[in-house]
Amino acid sequence: MAFYELPKKFLKCQNLVNGHWQDSTSDKIKVLSPYNCEQIGEVPKTSAAEVNEAIKFAQAAADGWKKTPIKERSTYMYKLRDLMLRDLMKMANVAAAESGKTVQEAKAGILKGVEVMEYALSLQNLDVGGTIEVSRGVTCEYRREPLGVVAGIVPFNFPAMVPCWMFPIAITLGNAFVLKPSEKVPLTSQLMGNLFIEAGFPEGVFTIINGDKTTVDAIIENESVKAVAFVGSTAVAKAVYQKSTALGKRALALGGAKNPNIVVPDADTQIAVRGVLDSFTGCCGQRCMAASLMLAVGDVDDVIKQIVEAAKQIKLGDQMGAIIDTPSLDRIHEYIARAEKSGAEILLDGRSPQAPKGFEKGTWMGPTIIVADPDHELVTTEIFGPVLTIVKVKSLTEAMEIEKKNPYGNACSVFTTSGAVARFVTHNATAGMTGINIGVPVPREPFSFGGTKDSKFGQGEITGEGSLDFWSDRKKITTKWTAQDDKNWMS
Questions:
Q1: Catalytic one among 13, 283, 284, 288?
Q2: pLDDT (tens digit per residue) in 23-54
Q3: Range 260-436: architecture per CATH
Q4: How confident is the model at residue 153 (pLDDT cuts 50, 70, 90)?
Q5: Cβ–Cβ < 8 Å for 227, 471
Q6: Is 412 considered catalytic here?
Q7: Strand partners, 456
Q8: What is the DSSP string of 435-478?
Q9: 11-255+455-476 — its CATH code?
């Protein structure tokens, strides 16, 4: 099978501390590949004492890194970018092996991360400060000041991309960054750590601390950590946000989603079918931008029929990957079983898929399509799998009422050839990211990524221009050098 390659050797993950790899004395967690459920590595449950020791070095590095001019910081990030592109396919294969993605999906995630790096590199040429003469002889100025040590806690579904949402901008602005990878997919971060070392970053500017919930708590509780960014489920995002802010830290935690694709009768059928299909099956539905809810307005039965037929043709392994682990697969099966028992119509059932030859023991799940009532649990529950719930409504107003009641607010897209319909949806949607004839409306840099409601806890954005105020402070300086004749409050 050519869709990915298993790591050639069993990898024992280490922590990257002060620019060097260190073993942990803590207990270990097995790392299994979703493609065959076989062990491909192990990762330590780093203790609180080990966390605190590692962050001491990060704090020492932050003090010196802050004084390094942004153009000089950027030279290191340029090197890292080039190294990531050099090792693109190597990283993509490892990310696929541990997360269950196809290699092409893993590659696309890395390239999206590189895009954020390129935005970070542009900061040296942008006005990240500013000076104005506010009164005769008096100037006001602001400068970007790094916070010191900041941390990123990232999920399993994008082993490379989500870390790259965080560290390029944070580090380029002058912070030392502590990365806590998901214990389910720590191998890609090991490759990334090696590239940081090869790029020549000062020791301690980038730290990797592996572990579980106990490790996360220790990172958040460390006094040197001034800001915490998180991406994951809504329940954990809310907990991380509350714990961090209770300790007086800056926090931005992105949670789950239940994104609707609204399809109206005047939609271009080809665009709608491909957009809906790719959105709910891409990354096996394991992404916060998956549109796992379709609001079918009026007579769009032909679109639905074509989506079902196209979904039947998807080949697992080549076109769609695997579910991250057995508990997740069991949970998805339970949702489908409950829907079936409740009387929902199952148009396509992916619970007994054709696994790729030689990988029959993997956690495979085929595309599943269910028609349900507006008040069904599937309409507001993030399943995190390749399951599309279709709700048939009579009007666009009814569709927007369902969108408005959605507890999440990540994304909402509409498929239409009418400018008036598109404008109505984008103006009335409560989601933070909206799309027109695009199933996955992820903004490109410098436009920031971020949702609303239960999809985001905290202010600001995690990427783009909106992230600058999260990863740094504005220092304001008011200056007067000579006496002036005019009289005002600034005199």
A1: 288
A2: 999 999 999 999 999 999 999 999 999 999 99
A3: 3-Layer(aba) Sandwich (3.40)
A4: very high
A5: yes
A6: no
A7: 254
A8: EES-SS-PPPTTSPP--EETTEESSS-SSSGGGHHHHEEEEEEE
A9: 3.40.605.10
